[in-house]
Structure formats: C-alpha cells, structure tokens
Amino acid sequence: MNPRQARVWTCVLGLLGSGCTAGREAATPVPVAAPAPSTPTCPESIVADVPLEADYGPRIQARHWLPALAPSEFAFVPTNTVEASFRQKLELAEGTVELLGMEERTQPVIDGGAALVMARPVAGGFCIINTWATWQSTEVDVSLAGSWVPPDKRMAILLLKLELDRAAGGEETRWVVLGTDGARAWIALGQPPEHQLIAPSVSLSPKKDQLCLDVKIEYVNRLRLSTDGHFVQAAPKR
Fold it and tell me: What pLDDT, in 10s, does the model give residues 163-172?
C-alpha cells in the first residue's frame, strides 16, 4: 500500500470508528443566526427636509423611525440632562401628528437648548416629520403658547415661547412660529437665524378659518396667515 492509499484508508476507518476531523466537522450542523429585525420604513409622503434650525444628528431628522417618542431616544450629549417640557397631539388631514417639546441643559448649568419634534405614529413607533432646535449660552425654557388647526385640517400653526435666563441682563422672551401639514414642516415667520422674534407678547388670533398673529411691542402689529402657511404683514392695530 502506497502512502496516498494509507491516508485514504485512515480517514475511512476513522469515520467508521472515532471519526476523522474532516468528517466530524462536515457532520456538525452550523448554527444560523436569526435575521435582525428590520426597521419600519417611513412613508414617502414625509418630505426628507433638513432640520429647521440646529441639527442634532441623524436620529432627529425627517423620515427617521423611532420606537418611542421620548427624550431618551435622541442622541444628545450623555452628560447633559434632557427633559420633556410638553407633549400634544393634533389631528390633521394627513393623519395624527404628535408634538414633543424638550429642554437640554449642561451640567452644571452654563448653557442649554430647546427642541420641538413633530412625528406621526407608524408601525408601533413614530416617524419624524421634522424638528426645530436651538442652542443658547444660557438656560432655555420652551412651552407651546398656542396652536391652530383650520376646519379643513390641512395644516397646523404652532407658537413656541422661549424664556432665556440671562443672569446679567435678566430674562428674555423669544417666540418661534412653525407650521406643519403632517408631511413636512416649515418656519411660518421669518427665516433662520432671524426667525426668533424678541417681543414681550405674541399671540395667535383665530377668526373662523382665518388666522392672525398679534405681536405686541409698543403697539400691536398684526400679521395675517397666507394660504401657503406663512405670515404676511397686515394693517397695524393701535
């Protein structure tokens, strides 16, 4: 028997007895990993726009799906504190829209930020419509000062109130006006970075299917909502 024949018979005898290495490996089933669960796809009707002001990263951008609408789902700085300031649900023609307002603060408090996330319930979670966020060199409190939905529910107008705690100069109040139709969101008054309005008092003034924005500084300046969801100048109200 030549050396090559000896090697073949050794393997055959091993399979009949204790087994050869190649035979045992071939006979052992290889475990197959379970496929990772796929992330639900957000509807294409949601426009993949960029964030309305500050960009907090991909997890807070339009058409991104999240399992829950909560501050813990967003990629903020781990050492900072993030809290929900308000939450509200709106019923629009496009479907249900949920609003989540958040406040972020450094530790210790030196500066802070505020954010609003607009999202739609999808597949047990939420698809982001878009977000608005700002970062300031002071602590910021954000609240929803008003919201308006016309009878046809084609859009919603949102009035945010920002209260900045400036230690040297005292408190400063700013206002941001946003719009959404459930598919996209926009700044309804001004353009970044000039869209944060500094005024003592701002309010939404609805009349049937029309909406005005009253800005009070020395006197009341009334702005009228156009059909495209942006405010335009109207006659001043003394």
Answer: 998 655 678 9
Provide the pLDDT for residue 76: 72
72-80: list long-range contacts, CB under 8 Å, 24+ apart: 74/102, 74/115, 74/117, 76/104, 77/104, 77/106, 79/106, 79/107, 80/104, 80/105, 80/106, 80/107
Token pair in block for residue 17: 């007895």
Neighbours of 59 (CB within 10 A): 12
d(CA 160, CA 103): 13
CA-wise closest residue to 175 among 193, 199, 191, 192: 199
Q: How many CB atoms lie within 10 A of CB 9?
A: 10
Q: Take residue 155 and report the two structure tokens written for it.
A: 């859009």
Residue 72 has φ and ψ, to the nearest 5°, of -65, -15
Q: With H, G, I as helix, E, B as strand and everything else as coil, classify residue 49.
A: coil
Q: Give me the sheet containing 231-233, strands edge to edge.
A: 201-207, 210-216, 220-225, 231-233
Q: Are 172 and 164 in contact (CB under 8 A)?
A: yes
Give the DSSP letter of residue 176: E
> In this structure, are strands 125-136 and 65-66 parallel, antiparallel, or unpaired?
antiparallel
What SS3 state is found at 58? helix
Q: What is the pLDDT of residues 45-82, one digit of tens each?
A: 999 999 999 887 777 899 999 999 998 888 677 778 88
